[in-house]
Amino acid sequence: MKTSNSGGNFKQPETGMQLGVLIKIIDLGTHDNPKFGNTRHEVLYQWELPDQTIETDDGEAPMVVGKFYNNSHNEKATLRLDLESWYGKSFDDKALDDAGGFDHNKVLGKHALLNLSENQNQKVVVASVNPVPQSMQRDSYTPHNTPFLFSIAEWDEDTFQKLGDWVQNKIKESAEYKVIQAKGGGQSENAEPAPDFDDDIPF
Fold first, then answer.
1. What whole-number distance in Å separates Cα of residue 105 and Cα of residue 93?
2. Spatial contact of 150 and 156, defined as CB atoms under 8 Å apart
């Protein structure tokens, strides 16, 4: 068997500034990062694109794009930079630290203006996340996909089963999941309350 030059017929979204609705925030857990010789707690954000659709077995549906982040609010972390861009303001370090971090639930289901571009592999990726101009606001839009957040620390089996196989497998490779399995449970015994980062949100 030999390789071919075909990339398949997978449809990608159009590049440029596109309206997106954050429908999934998925805690992927902590994984080894061989490139830098350390570990990385990963989280996946997924937005649906109301203005770009694709045909599925169940009919027409909005396309979905995602971005992987290191779950960090360090001032140099990509997640923090994207959130600050989305809020249109800088965050206060002390407020974030005192709250125990940024509460992802604050942006779940919210609209953003995504800058989509092609990477070196010709794959469309989320280059930046921006606030939605007043002229593009669409408050009456109801997401096709019901927004949800999955947290390993607050394990919910029903939510876990909504995730795709590759996402489930990624979570099962995490350090947190291995601890859960070693304890013989289906959820973490060290669940922490959601942090309360008390900051005004502009949408």
1. 19
2. yes
What does the pLDDT average to over 106-123? 96
Q: Do strands 148-150 and 16-33 pair parallel, antiparallel, or not at all (unpaired)?
A: parallel
User: Structure pTM?
Assistant: 0.85
CB distance 144 to 61 below 8 Å: yes
Burial of 24 (0-12, 13-18, 19+ CB in 10 A): buried
Residue 135 CB burial class (10 angstroms; 0-12, 13-18, ≥19)? exposed
- Mean pLDDT is lowest, of 65-69, 117-121, 128-132, 193-197, for 193-197
Residue in 73, 43, 28 with CA at minimum distance from that of residue 175: 28
What tokens does 196 get?
């309360």
Residue 28 confidence (pLDDT): 98
Q: With CA atoms as reference, report the closest residue to 86 among 140, 47, 51, 122.
A: 47
